[in-house]
Amino acid sequence: MNNSSKNTFDIGMVIGGRWVVLELLGRGGMGEVYRVHQLNLKRDIAVKVISTKFLQEIDDNEYEAETCLERFNREVQVMAQISHSNVLQIFDCGSISVKKNEGEIPVEYIAMEYVPGGTLRSTMSTEGFYPDEDRMREWIAMYFLPLLDGVQALHMMGIVHRDLKPENVLLDGNIPKIADFGLARSCHSKPVTQSVDIRGTPSYMSPEHFLDLKRTDVRTDVYALGKILYEAASGKIGSDEIPFKQVRLKNPEKHFYQNLDRVIQEATAEDRHQRLASVELLKQAIQEVLTETGNSAYPAVNIHAEGGRFWKTWVLISVLALIVSISTGLGFMFFHKRGYIPPKSSVQTSPSGSAQDNAANKQSGISPLVQKGVSPPSVLQGKDEGTLHLIPGGIVTLPESFESEGGKVVKVDSFYLYETQVTNEQYVHFLNHVLPGIKVENRLVRGDDAKVWLLLGEVLEGYEPIIYRYGQFSVKNAGHAACPVLRVTAFGALAYAHFYGERLMTDVEWLLALKGGGATQEGASKSAVKSPENNNPMGMHGMMGQQTQPSPPEATISLPIPSPVILFKPNDFGIRGLNGNVGEWGVRSMDLSPEEKKEDTVYVVLGGLLNKLKSENAPPSVVQRYPWEAFTEVGFRCALSVTSESR
Q1: What is the separation, in whole angstroms, between the first and last Cα of the chain?
Q2: Residue 315 phi/psi, 5° resolution?
Q3: Which of 164, 177, 243 lies closest to 210 in space, CA to CA?
C-alpha cells in the first residue's frame, strides 16, 4: 500500500483550484502540515489540515467537537491579527472537502507563512552550553529573548500556546518564529485520570497542564520557556528525567550560571503560585542576569502568582513606591478637583502649533494644536499605548432618543477616539498604578474620593475577569485580558481617562463616529441587524428601562460577551466595536456648558445590548444613567480633543 494514500493530500493535488501540494512537511496528533504553492499569488505557503476525526475524539461528542472547532476558529482569527516578527503569520483558515478513495473527507485547515529553515533545536548543543558563558549569552540574546517577545505578543492577544518546545520554534535565517499553535488551548480536555490521551509534550508540560488543561494560563508557557532555557544550558532533556518537575543546573560554579539557575528554578516551579507570573517578568529576570557584572548572587524575585512588578532590590521598590504615591496623589488632586469640560464647538488654531509640534505629539499622545492650513495627524498613540484615530468634524441630526433635542442639527468638531474599548488588562494596569488611593471592600473598588469605580466578581456566569489578591489587581484568565472591561462605573471610566490626560466622548461625538460604519446623516443605520435579546440586563441598581438599541452599522459585528476587542471589524474611521453588544459610558454635551461644575455632568450609556432593539429602523439610543451604576454590558473608551486648550 502506498504510504501517500494515508495522507490527507497527495503530492501534485490541486486544492480548491488555488493550491498545488508540493510535499508533506510533518505529521502530528492533530493532522498534517504540507508545503503548497499558491497559484494566484505565486508563493509557497504552509497548510495545516486538522481531521474531523481528531476533533470528535477530543470529547467523543459531536456537539463538543463543534463547540471546540468554533473556539478554535475564533482564536485563529485573533492570531491572524498578530503581526510580529517572532510569530508565524496566519493567512487563512476554513473548511474544505477532499476527494479520497471513493468519497470526500471534510477537513479544517490553516494557511500560514512557510519558513524553510530549521528549528530552534538546531541552535542548541546536545551537551548544553555550560560552562561556556559567552556562547550561552550569545544564544540568549540572539534566539531566546526574541522568542520571549513573540510569546508576549501572543499573551497580549489572550492566546496561550501550551505546547512551546524547540521543535515548535522555526528559524527564518536567525529569526525565531513561534509555530504550531495547536488546538489544545481551544478545547475542553479530559483530566488524565479519565483519558490517557495527553495533549502536549510531557518534557515541557507544567504540572497543572498535565492534570487539567482548563487550569492552565500564561504561567504554563512560562514553565515551558524555563525548560527550554534549562536545555540550552545543560543539554537536551533525556528520557530518564522526570517530567512536570522543577529543574535546576547541577552545581553551577560561575556566578553567571548561578544567577541563570535562579531564573530557571523560578520559571519551572511546580506550584504555579510560586512561578514567575508572566513572560514579562521572565524577560526582566534574564536581562538582569545578562547585565550583572558583579560577583553577588542574583537577587530574589517577588513573584506573586497574580502578577506584580520585578525590581532588582527592595530599596528600589521603596523609592519607586514613594514616587508613585506622590505622583498619584498630585495627579488625582488635579484631575478630580476640576470640573469636566466638554470639547468646544469649533476647532481652535494656534500660531504656535507647527508640523514639528504635531509630529512630536503623535508620539506622546498629547492633543495637538492645529495651525491654520495644517491638518492634525490621523493617528495618535495614547499614554496607555492605545491607538486613537482622528474623527473629522461634521454635521449630525439628533435622533428621537434626545427627546426635546431630537431633530436638531448639530455641528461637531474634529476629535480623536480610541480604536477599541478599554480592556481588562489596560484597566488593571491603571488600578495598579493608583493603588495607594484605592480601597477594596465587599467587591467594590473605590477611588480616593470614595466613589465606586468598579464592581468585582463574576460579570457573567463563569466569567470573572478582574480579581484583587495579594494587594494587587490582575486579570484572572489570560484569555480575557483583551476583552472590554465591564461593570465599570462612569466615575471609574472618568478616573481612567483623567489619569492618562484624556476624557470620555460625548453623545454627539458618538453619533458622528457612527457615520464611519454606514450610518446616515440622521444617525440611523443603513442596515437593520437585530441583536440577540439580553437575558441579564441587571446593573448594580437594578434593571434598565426598556430602551431601544440602534442597528449596528454595517462595519460592526455582534460578538458574544466576552470577546477580544480586536475581533470587531473597524469602520471607515478605524474604530472597532461601536454600537456593538457592549454599550459605552459617555457624557451629554447639549446640557452642559464649560462653566458648569463636574457635579452637573449628565452621564449616558451609548448604545449596546442594554438598550434593546424595538424596531428595524430604531435610531441610535442614548440613555441617561447615574454615574455610580455598573452594568454587565457597559464599558467605555477614551477620547481626546484636537486642541490642548479644551483639556
Answers
A1: 75
A2: -65, -45
A3: 243
Distances in whole angstroms, Cα of residue 389 to Cα of each of 193, 204, 496, 567? 52, 42, 19, 17
Smallest CA-to-CA distance from 415 within 367, 454, 483 is with: 367
In 339-444, where does DSSP find H-type helix?
Answer: 355-364, 424-433
386 burial (CB, 10 Å; 0-12 / 13-18 / 19+) is buried
Look up the CATH number of domain 355-422+486-646.
Answer: 3.90.1580
The string of pLDDT tens digits covering residues 476-525 is 887 788 899 999 999 999 999 999 999 999 999 999 998 875 433 233 33
Cis peptide preceding 550, ω within 30 of 0: no
For the purposes of burial, counting CB atoms within 10 Å of the CB of 107, is it exposed (0-12), middle (13-18) or buried (19 or more)?
Answer: buried
Distance of alpha carbon 564 from alpha carbon 557, whole angstroms: 13
DSSP 8-state assignment for residue 290: H
Q: What architecture does CATH give domain 3-113?
A: 2-Layer Sandwich (3.30)
User: Helix or strand or coil: residue 326?
Assistant: helix
C-alpha torsion angle, residues 567, 215, 538, 483 (rounded to 10): -20
Give the Cα separation of 407 and 409 in Å (integer).
6
Residue 273 has a CB neighbour count (10 Å cut-off) of 12
| Residue (of 536, 508, 509) closest to 612 by Cα position | 536
Give the number of other Cβ atoms within 10 Å of residue 434's Cβ. Answer: 21
Query: Domain spanning 120-291: which superfamily?
Result: Transferase(Phosphotransferase) domain 1 (1.10.510.10)
Strand partners, 13: none
Residue 493 phi/psi, 5° resolution? -65, -40
Amino acid of residue 10: D
Provide the 10 A C-beta neighbour count for residue 624.
13
For residue 415, count other CB atoms closer than 10 A to its CB. 26
In tens, the pLDDT along 262-301 reads 999 999 999 988 999 999 999 999 999 999 754 434 444 4
